[in-house]
From TrEMBL:
InterPro entries linked to this entry: Sugar_P_trans_dom, TPT_transporter
Transmembrane segments: 38-62, 74-96, 116-134, 141-162, 168-185, 197-215, 235-252, 264-284
Name of this protein: GDP-fucose transporter 1
Record bears the keyword Cell membrane: no
Gene: SLC35C1
Top-level taxon of origin: Eukaryota
Organism (species): Trichechus manatus latirostris
Lineage: Eukaryota, Metazoa, Chordata, Craniata, Vertebrata
Pfam families for the chain: TPT (PF03151)
């Protein structure tokens, strides 16, 4: 019997909640030949890598290209949110017109729901804005190190907000990440390429990523657990929140004097950036579906390593041994944290509950 295909909203929910279904994976392995499954996994992982790396390099071009000379990072971010909102609404309309061919939830803008999601949207705006500002002021090669404190903030906020403690081994991996971050900052400074502003934006982006995960779990019930509905409302709210920022920071006036404002190439690159932003959520969920949350994290770490190497080669940079060591510490610490948390969760699942212990003692 073939396994029923998962809806995309459910796939992305699995990605967000880091939920896996070992029995489902075992069943899929039994049903499909090994070579076919290996080919599918290779294609899905490649799609994730290409989408993610392309999005970073494209955003760097839009934010800090000498040929464009466009100093409007808020507008770039606003436009990408607008593209995502329109894509969600377009796919919803297409699904209504072609039921059975396009699987997408029905989307209607409800102001009460939008108001309920507004606190998350504020954090979401901070997350994507600080991400792009970090990328504007630091090189692509240093981008991963600059935003590497997300895991550390996850541990800190879990304790402060959720009162969840963390094991010694997990804290040890966080120490490795912090050490790698500071070594990376030190080496960027030694090479004369350090941007303190970009580094600060990277730290703020890491904090917002952690807050975004916490608030997302709280507001998911408002949209019936649908990631696509949440994506639609989040980006629609973000478009509204960005408007006063565009006015206050004078970016609309800067756009008027932008020489490439009427260029089809410029708007094509801007729209492509929005498409990549929309696509990364989908390919992340697909990768988790065909592998597992743990494998996805390992793939993300390997992708970050490949992205760093590509950036160094593409921009023809020369880095010291200690600079590369800082990257390996950050990537290694992140991978170790993922492995430790996975091992701890597996250990908890295997431990019998107190009620089961009582039943075994009574011979039931």
């Amino acid at each position: 019997m073939n396994r029923a295909p998962l809806k995309r909203s459910r796939i992305l929910h699995m990605a967000l909640m880091a939920a896996s279904d070992p029995s489902g994976e075992a069943q899929a392995s039994e049903e499909k030949p090994f070579l076919l499954r290996a080919l599918q996994i290779a294609l899905v992982v490649s799609l994730y890598w290409v989408t993610s790396i392309s999005m970073v390099f494209l955003n760097k071009y839009l934010l800090d290209s000498p040929s464009l000379q466009l100093d409007t990072p808020i507008f770039v971010t606003f436009y990408q949110c607008l593209v995502t909102t329109l894509l969600c609404k377009g796919l919803s309309t297409l699904a209504a017109c072609c039921p059975g061919y396009v699987d997408f939830p029905t989307l209607h803008l409800d102001l009460r729901v939008a108001r309920s999601i507004l606190p998350l949207s504020v954090v979401f705006v901070g997350m994507i804005t600080f991400n792009n500002l970090c990328l504007k002021y630091v090189g692509v090669a240093f981008y991963n190190v600059g935003r590497s404190l997300t895991t550390v903030f996850n541990v800190l906020l879990s304790y402060l907000l959720l009162k969840q403690t963390t094991s010694f081994y997990a804290l040890l991996t966080c120490g490795i990440i912090i050490g790698g971050f500071w070594l990376g900052v030190d080496q960027e400074g030694a090479e004369g390429t350090l941007s303190w502003v970009g580094t600060l934006f990277g730290v703020l982006a890491s904090l917002c990523v952690s807050l975004n995960a916490i608030y997302t779990k709280k507001v998911l019930p408002v949209v019936d657990g649908s990631i696509w509905r949440l994506t639609f409302y989040n980006n629609a709210n973000a478009c509204v929140l960005f408007l006063p920022l565009l006015l206050l920071l004078g970016e609309l006036q800067a756009l008027r004097s932008f020489t490439h404002l009427g260029s089809a190439h410029f708007w094509g690159m801007m729209t492509l950036g929005g498409l990549f932003g929309f696509a990364i959520g989908y390919v992340t969920g697909v990768q988790i579906k065909f592998t597992s949350p743990l494998t996805h994290n390992v793939s993300g770490t390997a992708k970050a390593c490949a992205q760093t190497v590509l950036a160094v080669l593409y921009y023809e940079e020369t880095k010291s041994l200690l600079w590369w060591t800082s990257n390996m510490m950050v990537l290694g610490g992140s991978s170790a944290y993922t492995w430790v948390r996975g091992w701890e969760m597996k250990k908890v699942q295997e431990e019998p509950s107190p009620k089961e212990d009582e039943k075994s003692l009574l011979g039931v």
